[in-house]
Amino acid sequence: MQRTTLDLWVGIFVIVGIGALMMLSLKVGNLNINSSTQSYVLTGHFENIGGLKVRAPVKSAGVVVGRVTNIQFNTQTYDAVVTMAMDSSFSFPKDTFASILTSGLLGEQYIGLSAGGDEVMLKDGDNIMKTNSAMVLEELIGRFLFNKASE
Amino acid sequence: MSKYLVSAIQNIGHRVIEGIWRLGVGTRFFLLVLLKSGTSLRRFNLVIRELYFTGVLSLIIIVVSGLFVGMVLGLQGYETLQKYGSESAVGTLVALSLVRELGPVVAALLFASRAGSAITAEIGLMKATEQLAAMGLMAVDPVARIVAPRFWSGVISMPLLAAIFSVMGVFGGYLVTVVFIGVDQGTYWSQMQSAVDFHFDILNGFIKSCFFGVAITAIAVFEGYDAPPTAEGVSRATTRTVVTSSLVILGLDFILTAFMFRGVS
């Protein structure tokens, strides 16, 4: 076979292969070109995190504004410490409310932030004071039965 | 009676020693290929010629099987998921299973039987017809001139083929679930994009396919170079290439998966 045709075919092959890799990263993996955006770290203490996992999204008004990077157990206060990396293009007031929510009935759990009205914004390393634990089905049923019984 | 027992144990011992010996020779040959691949990287035309045979000619089988694997995944995933009313997760299922496991592994199995066997047969036949010996007489090192370019072409083309396989699979899943069955295409892509992580899934799949590429071509060139110079020897070497590299792919896949995905979500 001619050298030039050979080169052409190999060139096409390599371009298609690299194109496939690019498509995997951009379309399937949803990698943003500017994914190296600055981020700042917030922590929150939760009484019960339910099924929250590392890399779960942090959403505000349904928009992803950060990700959970670490979950630890605090042996002093006996609650869970959740560390979140927040996109630094979004800043939240000091009295923001963080709660663990579930997307859909059986979906994954995420942290929902609802902004407060404070003038001062949360900075890198700050702790979210107001938190709301995950909804645990057994507790909910228990409370319902308790209320029914007291009626 | 005891004579038979002794000879049976001797047989086992002989096989084990033989196996370890071959492993050692294979490793030394692999290091030799790495050591002598300077020529093929300097004269890159040799590698490009081999890339045509290992990469371009494997494209059709990779594209077609990737498409069908994705279509089957979409169909089966939909059938199961719709029982729980979560057919929107079918995109996630297709993409994650392809990118993490099926893409690298199935593409590597196909590559081993398509390109690995061809490499073994070619080198084995060159040895049987004494072309390699003739090269040596002309002071052309057959390892540097024949073996190393084939090795590097396999190493380069394997990750690209795995990526093409995954993309075709995702497209096949799209075709079946969105176009034929009628899952909403927005949910198909968005669920997929929110579940697939670049570093965690795609990069790890890519690293896997690189490992497979090295393993398959190293086995293929060694079996070819080591083949007895007869018709039967070449045919046995070709069979051994496919069997050994398939087993190595599956074993290596388990080890790599255990390292990459252990303990996280």
Describe the overall structure.
The complex is a heterodimer of chains A (151) and B (265). Chain A has 151 residues and is α/β, with parallel strands linked by helices. Chain A has 2 domains: 1-35; 39-136. Chain A contains 2 helices and 8 strands, in the order αββββββββα. Chain A has helices spanning 3-28, 137-150, and strands at 39-46, 57-60, 63-74, 79-87, 97-102, 109-114, 126-128, 130-132. Chain A has an 8-stranded mixed beta sheet with strand order 7-1-4-3-2-6-5-8, with no helix packed on it. The longest helix of chain A is centred in the N-terminal third of the chain and has 26 residues, at 3-28. Chain A is elongated. The relative contact order of chain A is 0.17. The mean pLDDT of chain A is 83. Chain B has 265 residues and is an all-alpha fold. Chain B has one domain. In chain B, 87% of the residues lie in helices and 0% in strands. Chain B contains 10 helices and no strands. Chain B has helices at 2-35, 38-42, 44-54, 59-81, 90-128, 131-137, 142-181, 185-195, 198-226, 231-261. In chain B, α3 (44-54) packs across α7. Chain B is globular, with a radius of gyration of 22 Å. The model of chain B has no long low-confidence stretch (mean pLDDT 90). The A-B interface holds A 1, 3, 6-7, 9-10, 12-14, 16-18, 20-21, 23-25, 27-31, 35, 53-55, 57, 106 and B 45, 48-49, 51-52, 55-56, 59, 84, 86, 95, 99, 156-157, 159-161, 163-164, 166-167, 170, 189, 192-194, 196-198, 200-202, 206, 264-265.
Largest sheet data of chain B: none
Most extensive interface, chain pair and sizes: A-B, 28 and 35 residues
Unreliable residue runs of chain B: none
Based on CA atoms alone, the radius of gyration of chain B comes out at: 22 Å
Number of E strands of chain A: 8
Specify the number of helices of chain A: 2
Output mean pLDDT of chain B.
90
Q: Number of domains in the coordinates of chain B?
A: 1
Instruction: Give the low-pLDDT segments of chain A.
Output: none
What is the helix fraction of residues of chain A, given as a range?
Answer: 25-40%
Summing up helix and strand content along with how strands pair, one would put the structural category of chain A as alpha/beta
